[in-house]
Amino acid sequence: MNKKFFILLGVILMIFSAATEAAVAIQDNRATADYWTGKNKSGEAVFVATADLEMLNLQIRQKSSNTIVDLVNYPEKVYTQWMTNKITATMKIGKFDAAETPKLFRNGTALTEFSYTQAKKNCGLESLPSVCAIRYALTTDRTNVRLLPEDAGWFGSENDTHYDELQATVLDPSEPVIVLIDSQDKEFVFVESRAYAGWVKPSALAFTDRATWLKYAAPQNYLTVIASRKTIPQGKAFYQMGGRVLMRAPELQKDGSWAINVPEADANGILIEQGMNIPNDKFVVKGALACSENNLIRQAFRFLGEGYGWGGLENNVDCSAFVQDIYRSVGIELPRDANKQEKAMARSISLKNMTREQRLEILKKSKAGSLLFAPGHVMMYLGTDENGEPLIIHALSSYYTFDNGQTAKHYVRKILVTDLHLMSKDKVEMIDRLTSVGNF
């Protein structure tokens, strides 16, 4: 096939993708933050004071079965059963604890029993030390966290490149992690971060002593990235919304800039704190934004139109990372996965076994910025428009249509404003699939 064919195919796919998005996306003034903040006259009121955030985050950590880890109080030594439990729990997320080789594809061909067995063996479960003295490290760039110590992606079909079943999440630069063990091939280390455990490349880490690490794990002064994305310094380390940057000085400098420290690693992987100054612009804020409904709305719309990234792949967010990043920008630490987020809500109303009318009645009374949960998906509620239609903003992967007995799956892979009439493969509209609505 010649180059012209691939160019034509690319153009066709772009047109099809745009048409698919246009079929479901709200694209008028309802797809603006100003529309919703203008309707929400009381939306600037703070619903969680800064002084109360620490207690709220403690409650979230307890309600989500400690999915969010208290890194500061992590034990300095752990034992074989502790490490075994951590590693096997991570494997179970992808069902990789099963003996049977999953029907997945690696490098375009069916995953073999040998590759599956070797990836699990590389975890080193059979040779764990009796006692492990933990190590302290910081991420130096956007870092993939894997469910097994394996570089190659495992996909559901031979042509898929988007939905890597080994991808757990990503970590921003400057994230403190606890390092437990090396993989058998020394190509990965198993880490605990604030919201996920898994395997990362040691080349993405800068190792340091506990005292230095604590400056990042429990910062006294920090900046929060409030743009959907930012590189610090320009063009280098990639931060997503909610990422935190350690400040070297608590106040603005005379030239109006912020003095910060960015972690880098020397040739031996040891931390070097790179001091620099960055502008005091609309992309960062000292501490966190005020916890208000309208700030949640504004933050959500900063992502509008950006791509969908399974587990943070392709420098994008999936549905649960989308809401996690928004809430972290106002200081609220949510778990990473949608099912854990649903359990972590301070106030939650179950919608199970309710009629359509009952669901609509509850939604109309719900606060803007509330989270709506369905099996495998989470969305942010915006409110109702002039026609009483409840609308949401979310990172949408796909939806289904049914025409003349034909079922079609449409990949959108964008952050959009939509209604709740999107159909699942079992012909159920999203509003009827909702399991709960939660907020703080």
Element layout with pairings:
Elements: H1 3-24, H2 33-39, E1 46-48, H3 53-63, E2 77-79, H4 80-93, E3 105-106, E4 109-110, H5 113-121, E5 131-133, E6 135-139, E7 143-146, E8 154-155, E9 167-171, E10 176-182, E11 189-192, E12 197-200, E13 205-208, H6 210-217, E14 222-225, E15 229-232, E16 237-240, E17 244-247, E18 257-265, E19 271-279, E20 284-286, E21 291-292, H7 293-301, H8 319-329, H9 338-344, E22 347-350, H10 356-364, E23 371-374, E24 377-384, E25 390-403, E26 406-418, H11 430-433, E27 436-439
Antiparallel strand pairs: 1-21, 2-5, 3-4, 3-8, 6-10, 6-13, 7-9, 10-11, 11-12, 14-17, 14-20, 15-16, 17-18, 18-19, 22-27, 23-24, 23-27, 24-25, 25-26
Helix pairs in contact: 2-7
- Approximately how much helix is present in the residues? 25-40%
* Extended strand count: 27
Structural class: alpha+beta
Q: What Rg do the Cα atoms give?
A: 22 Å
Strand content: 25-35%
| Strand arrangement, major sheet | 22-27-23-24-25-26
Largest sheet: 6 strands, antiparallel
| CATH C-level category of the domain at 23-51 and 291-439 | Alpha Beta
If you average the pLDDT, what whole number results?
95
CATH topology of the domain at 23-51 and 291-439: endopeptidase fold (from Nostoc punctiforme)
Shape: globular
Low-confidence stretches: 5-16
Helix count?
A: 11
User: What CATH architecture of the domain at 23-51 and 291-439 do you see?
Assistant: Alpha-Beta Complex
CATH superfamily of the domain at 23-51 and 291-439: endopeptidase domain like (from Nostoc punctiforme)
Distance between the termini: 56 Å
